[in-house]
Amino acid sequence: MYTKINAACEYIRDKFPGKIDIAIVLGSGLGPLANEIENPIVIDYSEIPHFPVPTLLGHDGKLIIGKIGDKTVCAMKGRFHYYEGHDMSTVTLPIRVFARLGIEKLILTNAAGGIRADYNPGTIVLIRDHISFFCPSPLRGPNMDEFGPRFKDMTEVYSKAAGEIAKAVAKEKGIYLPDGVYTFFHGPQFESPAEIQAIKAMGGDLAGMSTVPEAIVARHSGMTTLGLSLVTNKAAGLSTQELSHEEVMETAAIAEKNLVALVRGIIENW
Ligand code: HPA
User: Fold this and answer.
1) What is the average pLDDT across 119-136?
2) pLDDT tens-digit profile of 136-179?
3) Residue 238, helix vs strand vs coil
4) Cβ count near 208 (within 10 Å)
5) Which residue's CA is the closest to the ligand 1 atom numbered 2?
6) CB under 8 Å to 256, separation ≥6 — which residues?
7) For the whole model, what pTM was predicted?
8) What is the 3-state secondary structure (H, E, C) of 162-174?
9) Residue 19 CA: distances (Å) to CA of 13, 37, 101
């Protein structure tokens, strides 16, 4: 694993030797955020050693490095999901690479189903915590001592301080930004209504198929993480509509403007 991480890291360093302040992972339909990056260096995942190529509509497969305001950022347009068949070490490979590149701050974004009654499609939610019960641990196996300890504390996976910055930016821009608990589901099938009710009773506010493995590895690697979910639909059984990836993409396209404004503001102020 170290060999893979180092090879990917060296390839990226060769293309961009400078310091990167913040890494951003762009979720389904949220790729247009990458258009905010000035003087971009675009690297195709197919060029990066050991990076797989995303199989999914709305996930491009490009790493984009450049400026937003006075910050240097590195955005992943397209991420790797467990449901695509990757093992967890591949799902989280980019996060290890970011840590190895010396990037200290990470913004994870995703599209998610809203469980809480006040989360309507289009609502952006600040991830306060997560439920990882259904997520095979990305830290399973020999511990990567160079990154972090065997038994890592997960009390504050999502930085409270970074969350306060996000809330202040949202307030200034007039964007409603509740916080909530994100629950990982394997996918690729959407959840059943009973599963959503079970999670609701357990304190889950959002349902999604990404982010948690990445956040766990970022925490293990000592990175500071901020997570944002864009609610693209009410979770299974909470509306009469059948769930579909097309609906997820359509809502993401409509609501994306607010998310772009919010993330830009967070980057400028973090
Ligand atoms: N469930 C899981 N993942 C999702 C959903 C959902 O309802 N919407 C967008 N991603």
Assistant:
1) 96
2) 999 999 999 999 999 999 999 999 999 999 999 999 999 999 99
3) coil
4) 24
5) 208
6) 29, 30, 32, 33, 230
7) 0.96
8) HHHHHHHHHHHHC
9) 9, 16, 8
Map tokens 């695509």 to a residue. 84
Tell me the one-letter amino acid at 53. Answer: V
Is residue 59 flagged as an active site residue? yes
148: CA distance to ligand 1 center in Å? 31
Are 146 and 197 a contacting pair, CB within 8 Å?
no
CA distance 235 to 256: 19
Joined tokens for residue 59: 């996930």
Ligand 1 pocket test, candidate residues 234, 248, 249, most atoms within 8 A of CB: 248
pLDDT at 89 over 60: yes
Domains located in the chain, CATH noted: 2-269 (3.40.50.1580)
Q: 236 is written with which tokens?
A: 């299974």
- Average pLDDT across the chain, whole number: 94
Bond prior to 188 in cis (omega within 30° of 0): yes
